[in-house]
Specification:
1450 residues, mainly beta, eight-stranded antiparallel beta sheet, 106 strands, 1% helix, disordered N terminus
């Protein structure tokens, strides 16, 4: 090996992200206790066992760094103790230190152990019949890359995962696993009020001793955790059953081993003295094509092949050996005890299998005891059976010692390599005592601890040792770390592509070169055509590709990804030689606004510079292309005033990254701006929100100037932006020419610019002058122009996106300085005279590169024009090309010029240099004639300067910068101030974060460059969750489904203005049309009892969306449609069901400070009156028939609960309020109970005509209604139902009608108005054929039908029926429409075919079974031409239902 190669290899090793060697003993540990759910809480303390295996005494302390209440004296006693050599101490931790359902997803329940000498730690989390122990690894054995492996969810008990940060400012990226498991819901994780679906990735920010906690009813095995600093990861199950259908359950937990410390060989031994000894073994890899083989002592064997991140489950029931050529992880999930303990004493536990390289020579069994006897008031007792499970080489067995004495273990031969035979042994020990098992000669062997009782098992590794390994870590661009452990540093370009062919994208990125050179480009050619669309004599699209590698050929591939048949070419470009590539003109964008697939992808094996030329006869311009890794997210566009009817201003935007790119385009506030995009016309100042898929291009065209239009990538996907005009006339004259530039992102704009006039030939051309536009990135931007002519002066641009236009003479050179970053664009004017001898040139547009973006070397080629060579019919003449240069005067002598033939010359051509007024240090400008073909200009000693190329022909012109530095050296990393308009983290994006605790731009940092969170401007939805009380709450979160049918992407913000900081939410998401997102909040947002609350949730959207909250817990669920605040009112009548079971309830939310008055009803004959506790004075009772008032602040709410019937209460308010009504949990006609709720329409919207349609899956349903005085409401007869008539002669009243299963009829009221609710009844028994429980949904008056709605079916927390089937929601969509219009109703674009005519009416009903869609899709129900309909979604499962109307319009 060469010396240079050795040095390079050592350099790579020095920056591999490694863990310390894996070891069990250390001086500092962090841990947490996961939830352990049992029916009969004993509130037993949690246990931390610390063992000192050293030769000197240890001083050990326990602490809770962020919450001292976890270690109160009555729980813990002394927090610092001395442990003698060979001794052990047991710390107690308060039981509430467990992370429990309802705790914040990021919380402070972390315990820390510190010691002055190395110790080992085992933790025990126990309740009666539910316990597990786990080994705690020291901090210096932790890593940054983990995968979760757990047993599947038990019966109604979720899996859990916790991540603890050991250092401040730790970024943790969580990848939610994708799975093909069908017996449960897909994995989905809650964080900061947003549900992250299967297959998605999100990043959180933790500080030292904070813990992030996930609870999921899905199987979370395969979850990837990647951190920027070492973290501790714990996973398990609150109380698992394995298999899930068994009844006995047990808590499980283990600390995960980082992927860098996985092994290639494992031994498994089954549970000792068990009639069914096997376990479920789960294995996982992070390496593609990993083949894992296993062999059992009973002769059974097999193999599995796994890809990166995949896992599988093996059912093993005998001694086994597992191996692979790649590292993998393995855990044992203990199975459930079946029946009484007649030879099988065990229950689920979770333990890491110990890799062969992780074996140790000594293990300590702590003196743990069981809590089983505490259920009967007794004291804790030793476990019935305690033992070491050992794997050891046969030759070493005789050296085993237990507590210093020779031991005779119970051993059998283990499968595995015959060259070193090993045995599986059991060493039984006395329970409730500490024991040491070691080897007299220091031989290493594997060992676990087991302790079992009737229906209870704890097991864990006791020691782990392994050498240090490379480990995957969070990537921060240009960090010079091998983030993916592939032996290469920063090998990706961060362009959304897999540059190194390893199946991963942007996993280990280099810092942007900061130059307009790169390996990946995504570009388009905007419209350049005659206004009548006729063909031109000359029509070409040209790419000029300049390799930057000076020694080797560069391979360049040009393709059209979305039109694969259109173009594909691969070339090998020699060093320094610019290659011309002709592109099919069919890829030019057409004469219209819209979305197109005419996008060009350029990929190169090394850096290249790309120029694009868009040319037809007498109309051409070019641009310097920007590589994808130097593009950004925030742009303003430039064009010129449209003075000719044949011209339009235009913008093209191309998406370069995978998945959806969400765009927000704010049109310039210029007179006459109008864009017709996808059927909608947008005018000056209006916002277009839309989305693009990778390689899609959007073009916008306007009959007037689009300068100052802002283009934002809302989800931080890089975009390429092009702007200009199709064929403008600039100045006086008639000639037109295409103008275009690729825009540079706002963060690389500059503050100091130096201009040089464009030199034109001819007596008139020399006097034409130029136009400059200065575009501001911030409000109130001051502009100073220093000049030797009339342009000099001081100016102000009041608004960001605004511009200053300067007319600059052809002899005038200027310095333009701005107080905030700006973009300067130079326009050449129309050729005034058709005689090119008098004036030669035409409109063009080029960016003036700021001094901050000057660079050091420029390679370019001059192209041919659209004019034929004199005397030729095929060869086109070159442009008369010139180069404009600006440089500090003192460095002019540093300039060098070369072409391919002469290479470097020792001097620069003799030219006229002109000093630019006001510059300090002094700047000079010059114009240089350049030859046709290859050219190169540079400066020695790394001197930087600015350069632009332009060329003229008869009525034709092109211009563009030759190169520029896009990552300005002027950028300095700074603290963010929300909305400061500064690129605080120097990533070429301004204010790209939302300060919401998320890594919005996926750069490994959180809230580092924040914008003001945008508020919606078309919809505000205000709601809360009322009381829903169950005996054994399990779910822990409340779900909100938000979906959209907007024509543009909906910009949606969800916030909780009154919530405490530990529970508050403020998050912004984008929802494309036809898609949905799931928000979630902790169940602490439920309101309990009669009181005032600050638990209001607000969703704001840029366009109307559909919002459906689900108030869900075990066997108790309902949903409601949230009305926009424009549909709220000041008077309401609640409706609920009576008899109430657990109580009737309503809630009122103020949209502004308001006084709310409530008149309680009197229902004669009801056994229980509608009495309530006053919500403002929770000790005062208010009797039925009485009234009370409540003063509410903005978004404050109150709730009242009654054992009587609150239906018919009169609620009035001084400002609009939102009102929700229902029952806490009610049983109707059977024992089974369910929560019911609906948002109420204002009483002013009560009506007199409805189509009442039952859901059709229960024996009967109930219509509950409230009517005005003087009303008569009539329910027509239907089949065996004889009909009902109700009259309210003297006063308002409330009543109900019981209608049959398939009822469908027109119901009318006369003499007044009513409001109606449909209530379903209880399921008759468990697993009854008629599934479902009570629900309540509004019956919409026919005058308030809608034209469109979207919806999604929620994921039901996993639970299996006794039949073994998965219990999931079965959903029915009930749609009502006029019979004459029903053919126009569409569900997801398809006609509905199951219509039935409703007798006695002009309406029809359809009951359509609908299924849950894959995320993020939503179902869309609409009509072709605005026909009206009503719709209700009804979902049922075993003893659980939800129903809500999909919308109402008034």
């Amino acid at each position: 090996m060469k010396l240079g190669a050795i040095a390079g290899f050592i350099a790579v090793l020095s920056i591999l992200p490694t863990t310390e060697c894996l070891k069990s003993q250390g001086k500092a540990f962090v841990l947490t206790f996961l939830d352990n759910v049992v029916e009969y809480w004993q509130d037993l303390p949690l246990e931390v066992w610390v063992t000192n295996e050293g030769s000197s005494d240890a001083t050990v302390s326990i602490s809770a760094p962020r919450d001292n209440n976890l270690l109160l004296p009555e729980c813990t006693g002394d927090k610092t103790v001395s442990i003698s050599a060979g001794g052990q101490h047991h710390f107690s931790v308060c039981w509430w230190a467990k992370i429990m359902k309802g705790d914040a997803d990021v919380n402070n329940k972390v315990i820390r152990i510190d010691s002055d000498v190395d110790v080992s730690v085992i933790a025990l989390n126990k309740e009666a019949f539910s316990a597990d122990a786990f080994q705690v690894l020291p901090i210096d054995s932790l890593g940054s890359s983990y995968y979760s492996l757990v047993s599947g969810p038990g019966k109604d008990h979720p899996n859990t995962l916790a991540v603890i940060a050991t250092e401040d400012d730790t970024s943790v990226t969580i990848s939610v696993p994708e799975t093909d498991i069908t017996d449960g819901p897909p994995p989905a994780f809650n964080y900061r009020c947003l549900v992250h679906e299967s297959g998605s990735t999100f990043t959180i920010r933790l500080f030292a001793h904070q813990v992030f906690y996930i609870m999921s009813f899905a199987d979370i095995s395969g979850t990837k955790i990647l951190a920027s600093n070492p973290v501790a990861v714990f996973n398990g199950n609150t109380r698992a059953a394995e298999p899930a259908s068994e009844s006995s359950r047990d808590h499980t937990c283990s600390q995960a081993i980082s992927s860098g410390n996985w092994d290639k060989e494992y031994y498994y031994s089954p549970v000792y003295r068990s009639s069914t000894p096997g376990d479920m073994i789960r294995v996982q890899t992070n390496t593609p094509n990993t083949v894992i083989t296993y062999s059992q002592a009973n002769g059974q064997s097999g193999q599995v092949t796994l890809q990166t991140g995949e896992w599988t489950e093996l059912a093993l029931d005998d001694q086994a050996y597992l191996s692979s050529s790649n590292k993998f992880s393995a855990v044992a999930c203990g199975v459930t005890q079946v029946g009484t303990p007649d030879g099988m004493i065990r229950d689920p536990s979770l333990r890491n299998l110990q890799g062969v390289t992780q074996w140790a020579s000594s293990y300590v069994f702590p003196a743990v005891t069981s809590a089983e006897s505490t259920l009967n008031g007794g004291t804790e007792q030793p476990y019935t059976l305690s033992y070491f499970q050992v794997t050891i080489a046969t030759a070493d067995r005789a050296g085993l010692r237990l507590d210093g004495a020779t031991v005779n273990p119970d051993c059998v031969a283990a499968p595995g390599p015959t060259s070193n035979p090993r045995e599986s042994c059991v060493v039984v020990v006395s329970g409730g005592q500490s024991h040491v098992l070691n080897h007299v000669s220091g031989a290493e062997f594997g060992a676990y601890m087991f302790a079992t009782n009737d229906k209870e098992t704890i097991s864990t590794t006791l020691a782990l040792n392994a050498p240090a390994q490379c480990e995957e870590t969070v990537m921060r661009r240009g960090d010079e770390i091998d983030n993916d452990c592939d032996g290469s540093l920063d090998e990706e370009v961060c362009d959304g592509l897999d540059n190194d062919g390893d199946g991963k994208i942007d996993e280990d990125c280099q810092q942007s070169s900061g130059q307009a050179r790169g390996r990946t480009y995504v570009i388009s050619f905007p419209d350049n055509s005659k206004s009548d669309g006729s063909a031109s004599d000359l029509d070409t699209l040209e790419l000029y590709i300049s390799p930057q590698n000076t020694e080797e050929n560069t391979t360049v591939t040009i393709s059209t990804p979305l039109e694969p048949q259109t173009f594909l070419e691969t070339r090998s470009a020699p060093p320094l030689l610019t290659a011309k590539v002709d592109i099919p003109t069919s890829l030019r964008l057409p004469q219209s606004s819209g979305k197109f697939t005419r996008t060009i992808l350029i990929e190169a094996s090394d850096d290249i510079v790309v120029y694009a030329l868009n040319k037809i006869k007498f109309s051409s311009d070019g641009y310097l292309a920007i590589p994808v890794d130097a593009t950004g997210y925030d742009y303003y566009t430039a064009s010129i005033t449209v003075t000719d009817s044949n011209d339009v201003a235009e913008i093209a935007v191309t998406a370069s990254e995978i998945d959806t790119t969400n765009l927000e385009i704010t049109l310039a506030d210029n007179a006459g701006v109008a864009v017709n995009f996808l059927g909608t016309t947008y005018t000056a100042g209006q916002v277009i929100r839309t989305s693009l898929q990778q390689y899609e291009t959007l073009q916008l065209q306007s009959p007037q100037d689009l300068t100052g239009t802002r283009v934002l990538s809302l989800n931080n996907k890089r975009i390429s932006v092009f702007s200009g005009n199709r064929r403008p006339i600039i100045g006086d004259g008639n000639a037109r020419d295409h103008i275009v530039e690729q825009m540079i992102p706002v963060p690389v704009w500059g503050r100091e610019f130096f201009t040089n006039p464009i030199k034109r030939d001819g007596t008139e051309g020399q006097l034409r002058g130029d136009i400059f536009r200065v575009i501001a990135s911030q409000d109130n931007t001051d502009v100073t122009v220093s000049s030797n002519g009339d342009a000099a002066g001081s100016y102000n641009i009041p608004n960001k996106g605004g511009f200053l236009e300067l007319e600059v003479a052809s002899t005038e050179r200027t310095m333009i300085s701005t107080t905030s970053p700006a973009l300067v664009v130079q326009f050449s004017k129309t050729q005034k005279n058709s005689n090119s001898a008098v004036d030669k040139g035409d409109p063009s547009m080029t960016l003036v590169i700021s001094k901050e973006s000057w660079t050091n070397d420029y390679r370019f080629v001059t192209p041919r024009s659209g004019k034929l060579e004199e005397g030729s019919t095929t060869e086109y003449a070159p442009y008369t090309s010139r180069m404009s240069l600006v440089i500090e005067t003192q460095f002019i002598s540093k300039l060098r010029y070369k072409d391919v033939d002469t290479l470097f010359s020792t001097s620069f051509p003799t030219v006229q240099w002109n000093v630019i007024p006001g510059s300090n240090p002094q700047i000079s400008a010059a114009t240089v004639d350049v030859e046709f073909g290859q050219n190169y200009v540079t400066a020695v000693d790394d001197v930087v300067f600015g350069a632009m190329i332009y060329g003229a022909s008869d009525r034709e012109f092109y211009s563009n910068p030759i190169s520029l530095r896009l990552h300005s050296g002027a950028c300095v990393i700074s603290e963010t101030t929300i909305g400061d308009g500064i690129d605080n983290d120097c990533d070429n994006a301004v204010d790209e974060e939302l300060c919401n605790g998320y890594d919005d731009d996926n750069d490994g940092a959180i809230d580092e460059d924040c914008s003001m969170p945008p508020a919606g401007d078309s919809g505000r939805y205000i709601f809360n969750f009322m009381e829903n009380n169950v005996e054994y709450p399990l779910v822990g979160t409340l779900t909100i489904l938000a979906s959209s049918t907007c024509s543009e992407v909906a910009n949606v913000r969800m916030r909780t203005p009154g919530a405490p900081s530990t529970e508050s939410c403020d998050i912004n998401v984008m929802i494309p049309s036809g898609e949905m997102v799931r928000f979630s909040v902790p169940d602490a947002f439920r309101q309990y009892g009669s009181a005032k609350f600050n638990k209001t949730i607000i969703i704001e959207s840029s366009c109307p969306i559909d919002v459906a909250p689900f108030n869900t817990d075990r066997f108790s669920n309902d949903a409601f449609k949230v009305f926009p605040d424009t549909q709220l009112g000041t008077e309401y009548r609640p409706i609920s069901y009576y008899p109430a079971t657990l109580g009737t309830v309503f809630s009122v939310i103020a949209t502004a400070p308001a006084q709310v008055n409530v008149q309680l009803p009197i229902h004669a004959g009801n056994p229980e009156p509608a009495d309530v506790i006053h919500p403002s004075d929770e000790t005062t009772s208010v009797s039925a028939g009485s009234s009370f008032s409540v003063d509410l602040a903005e978004y404050e709410s109150f709730q009242v609960v009654s054992g009587g019937d609150l239906s018919g209460s009169v609620i009035t308010a001084t400002e609009p309020v939102a009102v929700f009504s229902g029952n806490i949990r009610v049983g109707i006609n059977a024992k089974s109970r369910d929560h019911i709720v609906e948002q109420l329409s204002p009483w002013a919207e009560a009506s007199n005509e409805w189509i009442v349609v039952a859901n059709g899956m229960t024996t009967e349903e109930i219509v509950k209604f409230t009517c005005t005085a003087g009303s008569t409401i009539q329910f027509p007869a239907y089949e065996d139902y004889s009909g009902d008539t109700f009259t309210f002669s003297a006063s308002e009243g409330t009543a109900s009608a019981t209608v049959p299963q398939n009822y469908a009829a027109k119901v009318t009221a006369s003499g007044g108005n009513c409001q109606l609710m449909l209530i379903t009844i209880s399921q008759a028994s468990k697993n009854h054929p008629f599934l479902g429980d009570p629900t309540m949904s509004a019956i919409v008056p026919v005058s308030q039908y809608i034209t469109s709605a979207s919806f999604a079916i929620p994921v039901k927390p996993w639970r299996k029926l006794a039949t073994g089937e998965v219990d999931d929601y079965k959903a029915t969509l009930v749609v009502v429409a006029l019979t004459t219009e029903r053919s126009s109703i569409r569900l997801d674009g398809s006609a509905i075919n199951s219509w039935q005519t409703i007798s006695g009416s002009s309406y029809s009903v359809a009951r359509v079974e609908v299924t849950r869609k894959d995320n993020p899709e939503a179902a869309v129900l609409n009509s072709l031409n605005g026909e009206k309909f009503s719709a209700r979604l009804w979902g049922v499962a075993d003893r659980e239902s939800f129903a809500y109307t999909l919308g109402i319009e008034y």
